[in-house]
Design a protein that fits this description.
mainly beta, Barwin-like endoglucanases, six-stranded mixed beta sheet, 8 strands, globular
């Protein structure tokens, strides 16, 4: 620490200075720009000929088909997120009675506008589908999720926690079975915060119990 003056605060760098341009380690950047998610209902107005990040690792496999931009079969944007009561995919928290009591099952959040459009009531079973898989859960109709206006049209957003699975005390549809395998080029974290899907009222299996 004594070797770094106060004008060189980046102590993990040999010279103590912050770098915009680096010789190794940064695959894109360093200046911010905008690319659409790998799956998107709209075009990228900033880069019409290059809507996706050109250096994002993609996995072209038969079990990982991607949706093309604006695919009418998958008109909705889905985002996945965490809940306070569960940890990562729930492997350690779904078996804990106290946590399972607080968040006992998976759910899918949709806006009142989308619920009216599709005839879905709060608590109804719904199925969320992508080209990669399907997951079911009960609908949570809430104003916390709002439709977006993008390029002059309405785009509905669906929210789904990704902690749930078939085992444990707290169970639910597996959000990761829906997500596309594509990664951020620098962190290599998979892109599950925004992709496209469709949703319908019903169950994965007809005649399934409550």
């Amino acid at each position: 620490m004594d070797a770094h003056p106060g004008t060189a605060p980046f102590i993990m760098m040999l010279d103590g200075l912050g770098w915009l341009f680096v010789p190794v380690g940064l695959l894109d950047g360093p200046l911010p720009t905008h690319y659409e998610p790998w799956e998107t209902p709209v075009t990228n107005l900033l880069y019409p000929s290059q809507p996706r990040n050109p250096v994002a690792p993609a996995f072209l496999r038969a079990d990982n088909p991607y949706h093309e931009m604006g695919d009418p079969r998958y008109p909705y944007v889905i985002t996945t997120y965490r809940l306070t009561e569960h940890h990562t995919a729930g492997g350690m928290s779904r078996w804990v009675p106290w946590l399972a009591e607080l968040q006992p099952a998976g759910f899918v959040e949709i806006s009142p506008e989308l619920a009216r459009e599709l005839g879905i009531a709060n608590g109804d079973w719904v199925v969320v589908e992508t080209a990669r898989g399907a997951a079911e859960a009960c609908a949570l109709v809430t104003e916390r999720v709002q439709p977006l206006t993008i390029a002059g049209r309405t785009v509905h957003v669906i929210g789904m926690p990704w902690h749930f699975g078939v085992g444990g005390l707290a169970t639910g549809g597996i959000a990761n079975e829906l997500a596309a395998l594509v990664e951020d080029p620098n962190s290599l974290i998979h892109e599950a915060k925004s992709f496209t899907c469709t949703i319908r009222k019903g169950r994965l299996r007809e005649g399934a119990g409550a």
